[in-house]
Amino acid sequence: MSLLQRTIHLLRKYRITPRKRLGQNFVVDETLIRRMIMYAAISREDIVLEVGAGLGHLTRHLAKRCRRVLAVEIDPRLVRALREQTCDLSNVEIIEGDILKVSVPPFNKVVSTPPYSISSPLLFWLLDRKFDCAVLTFQREFAQRLAAPIGSRDYGRVTVTTYYRAEVKLLDLVPREAFYPPPEVDSRIVYIEPRRTPPFRVENEKLFFDLVRILFTQRNRKVRNAVAPLLHTLGIPKEAVRIFADSLPFHDRRPRELSPEDFAHLSNELAGRTSKHVFFRDCHLLVWRGVYEPAEDTYLIAENLDVEDGEEVLDMGTGCGILAILAAKKASRVVAVDVNPRSVQCAEVNAWLNRVAQKVDVRVGSLFEPLRPDERFDLVLFNAPYLPTDTEPETMIERSWSGGPTGREVIDSFIEGVAAHLKRRGRVLLVQSSLSNIDETLRRFREKGFEAEVVAEKKVPFENIVLIRAELRG
User: Fold this and answer.
1) With contact defined as beta carbons under 8 Å apart, do 448 and 473 qualify?
2) Whole-number pLDDT of residue 258
3) Same structural domain for residues 225 and 358?
4) Quick one: 209 and 287 in the same domain?
């Protein structure tokens, strides 16, 4: 009796009508069964998971070659038939239920012709578990999605997720006649081997998978638009979503154009921008990776900030924008400047986050370069790079504290030019360290026509941090 004849006989015997809704198409090709077992290299040491065991044709072949078969079947009618057809096999354990919900003992290999209807969730379920390899027969179109080229019609969430977790080989094409009743499409055998280590670094896997899922629901929109729902879940307010999205890598490309590595880079960038939160008084700020995080020197200015209603303020070296935002609570206008483009983007987002974006103008550039020659301010704030360093800074974050061999390079340049951008009786609040000659700073301010004094001080390990207030005379 052929496998097709046996299948028809058993269906009649147990009065089972295959249900299309459950994807009940039974394998009736002995060659297909032998090839799947061969590709999986089944041995007597293996514990094999079979999903959608059906009438047990594949189950019996597996049982002859492995230590144990875990045969999962959701249809109670088929479970009854399966128990009777495998009752002589002591190494078969039948598990009734939905593979995505039932408890399954450990296994090291998977050999199955699962229902097409669960192909995607089953794949994600498998990729979350440890096993040596899987040989599965999928609908041909679904199989192609597992290894689709970037930008192709089949390239999508399944492609990227599978690539991160496993290596995939597309093997034999399987005609629809290999099943009864024949499905409407052909199939393909797929070999899946989990990776020991991912092909690229992902800082937050949940964020990575959420990003891939959300972006591919809008695969033809640009990333800046497609990423918006995820940004909302990460706490970015509606008003700041656009500017945040426009500052992301690949914001002007479409998800279908991004490689798996691009998705990882984008995910890591999001993780670095949303994982660090700073709270000060009524301000809530995101501090992106590569942006100076508020510290003792920042708070020394913040705690002594004397902004009058309606004043115009310049925040030099704004970092994440905390001082600019605090100043904007009273000021009529704040210009925030930083040499680090990343800091400028971060400060701009934080201005929206704290609802002062209409007052804060954030610009990129070194010291006074971003200003117009005629721009004048009532107050200039500067948490200057003041630490003595013998080497040139290699990163933007190093530039935020590196003051050259004496610690005075940036401070001296600032004092030389600040008077040109102050209104009459304009004033400066400058932070520096005892390591970079406070007396010299006071002398230089006075030489340029300022009244200068230390108005606050904070002791930290190895140094004192001071706040200098300098007011322009006359």
Assistant:
1) no
2) 96
3) no
4) no
Tell me which range, 161-165, 409-413, 437-441, 469-473, is most confidently predicted by mean pLDDT. Answer: 161-165
Question: Are 236 and 124 in the same domain?
Answer: no
Q: Are 179 and 188 in contact (CB under 8 A)?
A: no
Number of domains in the chain: 3
Q: At what angle do helices 3-13 and 76-85 cross, to 10 degrees?
A: 120
CA geometry: angle 134, 207, 295, nearest 5 deg: 145
Of 250, 272, 294, the last residue of a domain is 272
pLDDT at residue 8 is higher than 90: no
Q: What is the pLDDT of residues 353-412, one digit of tens each?
A: 899 999 999 999 999 999 999 999 999 999 988 777 777 766 766 667 666 778 788 899
CA angle 366, 338, 290 (to 5 degrees): 120
Q: Which two tokens stand for residue 225?
A: 């638009």
Among 235, 253, 272, the domain-final residue is: 272
Using alpha carbons, select from 211, 229, 208, 222 the residue that is nearest to residue 255.
Answer: 222
Domain range for 262: 205-272
Mark whether 113 and 68 lie in a shared domain: yes
118 with 245, same domain?
no
pLDDT per residue over 44-95, tens digit each? 999 999 999 999 999 999 999 999 999 999 999 999 999 998 989 999 999 9
232: domain CATH number is 1.10.8.100
Choose among 467, 473, 474, 472: nearest CA to 306. Answer: 467
How many Cβ atoms from other residues are within 10 Å of residue 28's Cβ?
22
Mean pLDDT across the stretch 126-132? 95
Average confidence (pLDDT) over 228-246: 86
**340 shares a domain with 446:** yes
pLDDT mean across residues, the chain? 92
- Mapping DSSP to helix (H, G, I), strand (E, B) and coil, where does residue 88 land? coil
Say yes or no: 164 and 92 in one domain: yes
List the CATH number of the domain containing 92.
3.40.50.150
E strand segments, 6-131: 26-27, 47-51, 68-73, 92-96, 109-112
Name the burial class of residue 21, with classes exposed (0-12), middle (13-18) and buried (19+) by CB atoms within 10 angstroms of its CB.
exposed
DSSP for 216-282 reads HTTTTS-HHHHTHHHHHHTT--HHHHHHHHHTSTTTTS-GGG--HHHHHHHHHHHHHHHS-EEEETT
Residue among 369, 312, 300 at smallest CA distance from 339: 369
**Is the backbone peptide bond immediately before 181 cis, with ω within 30 degrees of 0?**
yes
Token pair of 413 as six digits: 């340049």
What is the distance, to the nearest Å, from the Cα of residue 340 to the centroid of all Cα atoms in its chain? Answer: 23
Query: Is residue 76 domain-resident?
Result: yes
Residue 262, φ and ψ in degrees, nearest 5: -65, -40
